[in-house]
Amino acid sequence: MTGVLEGFSVIALIILVGFIMQRVGLLGDRGREMLNKLAFNVATPALLFGLMFSADLNVLFSGQFLVTAICMVIMAVLFAVVAIIFRWGTGNAAVGALASSFVNSGNLGIPIAVYVLGDGTLVAPVMLVQQLILAPVMLSVLDIAGRDPQAPKLRWWQMLYRPFTNPVVIGALSGLLLNIFSVPVPNFLLDPIELVGGISVPAVLMAFGMSLHDNAMPLRGQNRWQVLTATVLKSFVHPVLAWLLGKFVFGLDDAMVLVVVVTAALPAAQNIYNYAANYHVGESLARESILLTTILSVPVILIVTLLLHP
């Protein structure tokens, strides 16, 4: 149980640092924007390259992968359907779909996997689903939704290759392909990639903390129903669905059921805010959903661990 609290305390402290940075004006008016750009275009691609390059392929492509993939896709589709019904707009639909399905698998998932589940590599299938299935689709939607109305209309063939021009997708996919084909990468290249990747988590968390400084409390804005929908889907529906699929559909053993439910109960990833801020779409929806799901995930993960621990 201490592992859950330790993981959350690390995140909270770094977010607090970002909040204080914004409070004292340490990075100036564009500090948050620059941190987001650094994380999105450089640090996060480097981090994902290293993770995918070193991941165990047997763990990546497993029953856990199938349950995780199906759950995340269902969560994203559920929010998208609600968004279509209530006409929340394409950008908000994409951000809300990410907030309902995309979990904090890196800076929170890894420590919880280590301390609660006993193996940090158990979050690798989650990262694979997110970065190679959901991210290309959702980032393409955000790219289109955030385009200048005066920009030339995209052709169908441009939409096909556009996801693979995204730096986040490039980083994850290139690392995975080199891993699959056992292509060696010398240490003088891997070491700087790992160092740059180490910037990603603190940069994203500090930028998120900076965003909290001048914004209202959650569920008070015009998008409160969007935030509430994403929060309920992520915090409660997602882990319940993972339990049902893992236990009764795929017949996973008790230990693996705990893994898929705990990872599903992780809060919405801070990267979602980074994506929304980069495209200037759905920023408040992302920020408020991340904050609420992070708070709620503490009791949810504790309860799940108590009920399902074999």
TrEMBL record:
InterPro entries: Mem_transp_PIN-like, Na+/solute_symporter_sf. It comes from the Bacteria. It is a multi-pass membrane protein. The chain crosses the membrane at residues 6-26, 38-55, 61-86, 93-116, 122-142, 163-183, 195-213, 225-245, 257-277, 289-308. Keywords: Cell membrane, Membrane, Transmembrane, Transmembrane helix, Transport. Its main location: membrane. It is found in: Cell membrane. Belongs to the auxin efflux carrier (TC 2.A.69) family. PANTHER family: AUXIN EFFLUX CARRIER FAMILY PROTEIN, SLR1864 PROTEIN. This is AEC family transporter. It comes from Gulosibacter sediminis. The lineage of its organism: Bacteria, Bacillati, Actinomycetota, Actinomycetes, Micrococcales.
